[in-house]
Specification:
heterodimer; A: mainly beta; B: mainly beta; 50% strand
Amino acid sequence: GIQVEQSPPDLILQEGANSTLRCNFSDSVNNLQWFHQNPWGQLINLFYIPSGTKQNGRLSATTVATERYSLLYISSSQTTDSGVYFCAVLMIYNQGGKLIFGQGTELSVKP
Amino acid sequence: NAGVTQTPKFQVLKTGQSMTLQCAQDMNHNSMYWYRQDPGMGLRLIYYSASEGTTDKGEVPNGYNVSRLNKREFSLRLESAAPSQTSVYFCASILYGSTDTQYFGPGTRLTVL
């Protein structure tokens, strides 16, 4: 089956620093999504980005589908950015689609 | 519009007991999913329902059953709980075929003693 790999597994930043998270996937996908899981466990959609670039405030994401990777950029990081960031790819399967998740990048932003 | 709701939020079971986790969505989504998340790991798909009346196994279906009761509700049943099923369970839904993203419930934290 498709493999989804994220790097780095852990990241510690000083508040105000920038970072780039990477997601590699092993096969063609129909779409790719980025999620943030906050320290209380809640999963929040960040981006739906099968290709191209999107920006939302301090966060932006780029997916290069032909090269099978996606990047999540966090600029001017804040302590509230802490948590785990997951990418997930949607595979078409039977009558529907299912998401395959990477293992996540755990981000800790220090004040 | 409550989104995706799950009950209960917390549960402690003894080995061999059974229980049903409930999930409902009010977004008129056609596809619903159950995942489990173990410490330090990503989410693994247990079962999913592409549409009302259909269910399919995911990556880790053993020990679980599901019911798609109607378009809104998708339940997950543990017939005989085992300590290996201690985990956080998330329900999710999506309007498959659209450009929408998957929406997650708040999770159920289950401990099996």
